[in-house]
Design goal:
The protein is mostly helical. The protein has a domain of 66 residues. 66% of the residues lie in helices and 0% in strands. The protein is built from five helices and no strands. The longest helix is centred in the middle third of the chain and has 22 residues. The chain is globular.
Length: 95
Amino acid sequence: MIIKPCEKLIRDLDLSPGEAYTQDWVWKVSDFRRIETFLQYYRETILNFEEKRALINIILDSYEEYVGVNGYNLNYSRQIEQIVEGETLVIKNRS
């Protein structure tokens, strides 16, 4: 998936801007140590569709790395599950 780095996410979350379009941007800015920050930002910030898509991918990649280092976390898993379920409904209703 190619995602254009989102200026709002870069600014607000102090992420590396990377290149204009890259397959690796989400992977490069994902950080398992910041997963709580990413989840909180998602919950508290109004985001457009592209920003949500990018942030969800950052969260998923960060959690995958988190599990590899720290193991399963029920709290994070539940929060991520709620995000994915909620956004699936938004995406299905977006025509």
